[in-house]
Specification:
The structure is a homotetramer of 414-residue chains. By secondary structure, chain A is an alpha+beta fold. Chain A has helices at 36-46, 97-100, 108-115, 131-149, 179-187, 190-194, 204-219, 247-256, 277-280, 366-396, and strands at residues 3-4, 9-13, 20-26, 64-65, 69-70, 73-74, 79-84, 152-160, 163-164, 226-233, 261-266, 284-286, 307-309, 317-318, 321-322, 327-333, 343-346, 352-355. Chain A is built from ten helices and 18 strands. In chain A, the strands form six sheets. Chain A has a five-stranded antiparallel β-sheet with strand order 1-2-3-7-4, covered by helices on one side. In chain A, strands 9-8-10-16-11 form a five-stranded antiparallel β-sheet. In chain A, a hairpin with a 2-residue loop joins strand 8 (152-160) and strand 9 (163-164). The longest helix of chain A has 31 residues, at 366-396. Chains A, B, C, D: It is an enzyme of class 4 (lyase).
């Protein structure tokens, strides 16, 4: 099904060649200022063909809100959104390449096996165009998280091919133990990331090497993959459900649902498997005092926790539940399947042949994936925030427990 | 919420010190032979303290079916299952270590932040004991998948610390391109894996090195992580929903919901980001003919597809949908948080101190995680199988399309 | 949330004064012929101002399919649908009646209490306009049910005020025991119902009396309620889930979700509480042979059951599961809350006053509710059909049970 | 599926002849005092064979909490509950009546059609024993609603056969317009209801007539139906979701999921269709001041609304959302299908025959259904309360709207 989330629920529709793509966002809190101008920037960041000199006012992929707001205020009812497809013409069928061959590592063949009907675009909903609805919904979620909690979500490129922002070393098999990395995690902003267009890797030298690498693959009519790291700062504690819906599990679900992804790691990740527990464990320390009125939302109900951790190998999540430290994770993207080179493969009826794709192809999807990663992160977090605020609100109405559940040796109601 | 799956839905209950742990399995197909003896073996494989000489009849963690079967046949109604806790005594509160300190990288503190109530066991449901219900449910799912489709699910240890079964090399940044690895994926069995107890890594030399490594961490009262790879063979094509519930997304969700996991990768995974598209793409070839009657279920309705892929960097999934090739993925497990070494950390009320845990601790959870990975894989696959069989059954009742949706130039109903 | 169904899932959006209303239909079986012309007729039947002489080509409320089909064939992907709102102008706020008074028995006040934001239309999503998305989705569901199973769904007016098509009598406290009623249930068609516009009660004399009654309320600037009965014929057996999602429970849910409904009864209903069990029980009889090829879908997989019931007080459902007999139920609609008469009531800030609504008001919603009742019935049935076909398909792949579950004394696999 | 609710989610298991019946309650707010003694009273009220002289300590159907509490406090984690079956012996198959005949108006035949497997008890989960899990879960929900909001839920018998507590009259086609009825709704308590055992109709004369009527059916080896009315007092405003999950829709779903139900009506119900809008509309009046500290939970966050309605034909719900007035509804129960009289019917293989059931049969289920109705009402309300508290909590964190959404002519933030 094409639905994500329980409390903040997004349902998307649309494929490459239909009339429009879009989504319905159900469960958006009422009373929030919201217009298309809150949504368009991320739509534009997602568009192909961007560079440092891209004009900021890109009229393509223009989102139209259909419902759920009045006078620029959310009503709490479903928000319909729509973006027209420019190329609405369905492909005519005929003796064309796309009709003969399922493209290798595309979804053409698996869609046909699944549905028994071949869309003219081949893989139908597996098109990158489907992600438009996600980015639009994510922008709404982000706005709420920012206004209510001051949550910041920033993604950036951490590797392309074998060019890494933080290459693994014997000392740091995971960059989670590298203080430089943690400092970056704590401070990186979207504005900073976009200074490094087109690759969006916030380091001048590495960014240049990545750009060159992508160019070399483009020249060879080949493609290459990479990784995106995303950080979520200022999350309240208590997000995530124990057991099946741990916060890292829903983040992994969200990220692996993005086209072309092959992996996900939270905190110390795969490298963390090589670090001894004595180093990997994150000891607790007293949290620094928050200046009065520091809460971005200005609401005293958003309290900062008493403790934080000295290190952050956990990536802000312990036992599936957020601990208030920055949440960070990395997502792997494969090399795009569409390449200009000829490929020996089989036709739908199992005949041997050679497929040659024509036209412009994007040799690396990583930079454009960044707003999509941010959008999916926002959808996960807002869903968890609404679940937890329901639980906290429910508990707050119960009579206080008297001396039954002590901590640190004293009989103290929690 | 503690529920997993839509069509085959598992709800678990229980924490360390309560009366029992268990689950309800809803949506199990009716008419399948099922008794406790189908479930117990995986329960036993999950138990601590196993080795090659473990007696096969372990009376601990004995599962009792409460409902949903009669005369050893599933009725199609919910199957309740229960396993008694041996240590039902709740901890008395007092001036104990567990009351003073949230254990670093455990769930003690995040649970308290989430629920405002401290369970005597600290992290409540984050206990490894919670996985009992998953393994029981997974065993039922597996039986169905085996009987109806001949699906085989096998997990094994691929690394502990820096000891790898297939270390990454410049030639093979992902082992997905290594023919030796693919051969292992195609042939490995549970019986073979269990020949290599206690570490369950199917290579004598590597297994020995891993065992030594674990022993060295045990001696230091420290701990270490590792990775588990799991393969699912004989999956039908068409599993997985496009968009949010891609098959790799639900697998990632399932795996990251297992306690102590830090990462997931499907097919070529993180290493695959370094492989050019021209190599990474999996070309199609004609599938080898299946011998008559080869379908394990003996039902002609389970057909093998016409095409397969020459390589399998996709890990059996393209565009979020299974293509019939073996599905394989790897899961990262962190070093266990409970270590014997003293740790400088803070108390609940932010005082500084040193926490010393006593008792026997497992220095590496990887070998025991194997049946849990297999169980969660089975739960994902059965849910996808039931969704897809509903779709296929629904389509089969429609009047055939006449010449509308052609493939390879001919007007042919699909 | 604005979502209905699990396997065939409809999500709607839109209120009175926004840009458009519409829905996303997810889970429609692939490979079905579908264009706007399949959907428009029910949209048109739902429009106000219809009579026997209404032109068949009503250009208002024109539905546009956004996605999910190509060349008039469903792809199996989400179907987006949109209907423009004509009056998109939001009401300016000011010292107007609607700003001062919550209208009695409307949703103005409860919406404000719920969301803390007042939509210009008062009750926002409680508008009858919201039902457009339901009718569009229902038309798609109906087409599938008709093509695959030959299912027919027909609703008609059974009472307006105290004018009844079958008034309760001491002999028949429920019309379920009246053979005349059962004969109507078995034969009524939509074409027949629409012969009796505007009231849609298929009896000339009663229809005339109802029309006069409505006219008398219109004259008094008052309003009146009534009941709609709906029959679903040719349903397969086995629909409905035991326990919480019994078929009558999901039908009741669907019907009470239609604006202005106050009650639901299945089969003998409330009157059935007065009938002794010895009469109320439906004895089994051998089902009449179905002529070869009689299945409308032409698919032999849709088999008619061996037994049927002699009477049908159960309304086609026993133990929450369909038994193959016609399913019929009745829905109560209250008198419309908008009346021309002056009403003494309170303002939002609890001041006393008199509210006078101006303009044209519909004195009875019953006739227009008919396509909405049919749509919601179709959504319930298709969801149940897809759930049951998944179960049946899953079971069919298991090895046959040998002599374990006998019926009538013989060891016979079922 | 056997799951009810989204935020407070109940999953039940068990049929007549298995080891135990029970449920898992997921989403119970943490920090609430809870032991078996909070649950047992409703379990006992549900048991057969009760009368005014029933001993209060009935040891049958004893519930055991398995998990989710410690030291009598809820942890917020899933609460497993179990009740042993006394008759765990599955029926042997043989040439018995139950093997030959599907019992008329039972679920024997529909279950067989659905699952293809015959449970020894015939209709498997359709057994009244399945309701045990509901009552246990409902008791937990009720406790929360009472402690946090002072909500009271009371059900009572309003008719058996043609004996009515409030028979419909020309003046009052619905008792909703009868002030006597509304007074009863406002004041009735469970203690009062149980004074009128065995029928639980709170009027001495009517109760006596009902008792005699039931006795006469018992003598004839026949059965009879009736209705139960339920009132929910002190509900907060704002409960219920617009569109598909209107509060009356989820109540209807819940009630029609109880075995043997045939109808549901909210507020004025079916009778209300005969009342003109000018009488049926509920005008607003200023709500009476609540005495300081009157909120049972003692929490100032539970505020009483500013307005209430003068009449209550709406049954406390407008536009699908609670308005703070008492919510009341009526549920129809059919005559039990099990009767002692011989019935001419067909065997499973369509042979003609006569079925004679032996043993003790309950001629009327209405009185025992009362705690089940209350339990299901509690499950609906707690789910809606948690959804709404999440929404309200989410909104409360947003910056206040400035002068954008006015009411009554003034620019006022809501």
């Amino acid at each position: 099904m094409s639905t994500f989330g329980t409390n903040f629920r997004v349902t998307t529709y649309g494929e490459s060649h239909c009339l429009s793509v879009g989504c319905i966002v159900d469960g958006c809190p009422p009373g929030m200022a919201l217009t298309e101008s809150d949504i368009q920037p991320q739509m534009t960041r997602r568009r192909p063909g961007q560079s440092a000199i891209t004009t900021p006012r890109n009229e393509k992929d223009k989102v139209e809100i259909q419902s759920g707001t009045e006078f620029g205020i959310t009503l709490g009812t479903p928000i319909g959104m729509r973006v027209m497809n420019e190329n609405q013409r369905k492909q005519d069928y005929g003796n064309q390449t796309m009709d003969l061959y399922p493209r290798p590592s595309h979804a053409d063949w698996t869609y046909l096996e699944k549905y028994g009907v071949k869309a003219s675009s081949g893989g139908g909903r597996s098109s990158a165009r489907e992600t438009i609805g996600r980015v639009a919904a994510g922008a709404i979620a982000e706005k709420y998280l920012r206004e209510a909690y001051g949550i910041e979500i920033v993604a950036f490129t951490t590797s392309i091919g074998n060019e890494f922002l933080f290459p693994p070393t014997p000392e740091h098999p995971s960059c989670a133990t590298n203080p430089e990395y943690l400092k970056l995690i704590d401070t990186i902003s979207r504005a900073k990331v976009d200074e490094f267009l087109p690759v969006r890797c916030p380091d001048e030298a590495v960014s240049k090497r990545m750009e060159d690498l992508v160019a070399s693959y483009k020249e060879k009519e080949d493609s290459i993959g990479g990784t995106v790291t995303c950080v979520i700062r200022n999350c309240p504690t208590g997000l995530g459900e124990p057991c099946f819906d741990k916060l890292e599990a829903t983040l992994a679900h969200a990220m692996l649902s993005i086209p072309a992804t092959k992996g996900f790691e939270i905190g110390s990740g795969f490298g963390g498997t090589q670090i001894p527990g004595s180093i990997h464990n994150d000891p607790y320390i007293k949290a620094p005092a928050t200046p009065a009125g520091a809460t971005p939302s200005g609401h005293p109900s958003v309290q900062r926790p008493r403790l934080t951790t000295k290190t952050n190998n956990s990536g802000g999540i312990q036992g599936g539940i957020s601990n208030g430290a920055p949440i960070y994770f990395t997502v792997a993207f494969k090399p795009p399947a569409t390449i200009g080179q000829a490929q020996a493969t089989a036709t739908y009826d199992a005949g041997e042949g050679v497929l040659e794709a024509k036209g412009r192809h994007d040799p690396c999807v990583v930079p454009r994936a960044i707003p999509i990663v941010e959008a999916m992160a926002a959808l996960v977090i807002i869903d968890a925030v609404l679940a937890q605020s329901s639980r906290a609100a429910a508990r707050s109405l119960l009579p206080p427990l008297k001396g039954v559940v002590p901590i640190h040796g004293k009989a103290e109601a929690l």
